Each structure stands twice: as structure tokens, then as C-alpha cells.
Amino acid sequence: MNKEQKEMIAESTRELRTADEEFEAAFKILNKYPKRVTIFGSARTTPRFKSYRQARELAGLLSHEGYAIISGGGGGIMEAGNRGAFDEQEVSIGFNIMLPHEQHLNPYTTESLSFNFFFTRKVMMTFYTHAIVCFPGGYGTLDEMFEVLTLVQTKKMPRIPIILVGKKYWKPLDKFIRKHMLDTGLISLGDEKLYTITDSPKTAIRLINSGFDPEL
User: What is the mean predicted confidence (pLDDT) over 164-187?
Assistant: First the structure.
């Protein structure tokens, strides 16, 4: 083994140790709260957006139901989710990511952790939550949503409520899934029911409460 190979292995070991430390720190936070909901959505929305107001309202209502709100800790929908819980003086968790030029932690968190690695952050936000709520967003939001759907579809994680808030935004995607994936056999019958599209906070809360699993 030459010097360069040894240095590469040493660097990998350091990264793995850092990732393990991130997992451990995140577990310490999440284990304090028996009920948890993760909110995904665009970082580009502002309080003037309907989706921002919806996320803030729903997070506040979920807080009253005893759920700790988890977001990526940044702006937009992440801020709205944290803000809704913060308004109610309830648990508001921000799992931020360290990036060169963006994503500062929003001021509405009661618990926070800054991650170096996208994969550790995503694991902690998806595998250790009792429900996922997705608001309109860009590539990142769709990546997070479809990864969770894939993991549930392939039974690599328990089935949890996956709520897509915003009919105007999500219905065209639902139509695409049904026409180009379900009808052509690219997904199985029933896969189109792994998510629910709604504009109603009451519907979202009912589905989340009905799917709550204390073993997660």
C-alpha cells in the first residue's frame, strides 16, 4: 500500500467518524421527543406565499397534537415549519446543512444541529419521523419526497403518512404518475396511494394521527 492509498483510507476514516458523530448527536435530540413530523419544501418561499402560511399553520396545529416539528433548518418552508411550532412555544428542530454560500439556520428553532453530510441529515429526517409533509418545492423537495416513496415502496422503511400539501402544485405530478407510471406498469397498483394530496390541515392531522407508530 503506497502513501497516497494510506492517506485516502485515513481521510475516509475521519469522514466516517464525523458521520457517526452526526448520527449520535441527532439521535440524542430526536430520542427526547416521542412524536415527530418532518416538513419539506422550497427554501425560496417567503411569508407572502400561500405555501409558507400553510406550513406555518399546520406546524402549529401539529405542535398542539404533541409532535416535534423537524425541518432542514433553513429558510422558506423550513422556516415556516419551525416558526409554526415556535409560535406555540413547542419543539422546533432544525437540522441544518453546512454549505459554502447559503442556508443559515433560521431563528425559529428550539433545538438544532449543523450537519456536514447530506446523507446523515437525510437519514435522520426521514427514517426517524412518524410522518413526512411536503410542500411545493424544487429539485431538493422532489428528491426527498421520491426517496421516501421509494424506500416505503421497497419496504426498506416502515410505511408512514406522506402528505403532499398544495393540490394546485401536486395534482399535475399525480396525473403524470398515474398516466405514465401506473398505467404503463412501471409501478404497481397501490403505489399511487403511498401519498395523499390535500389542502386541508385537518385532513393532514387526521392521517398523521392515524398512522402514528410509537415504535419508530
Answer: 98
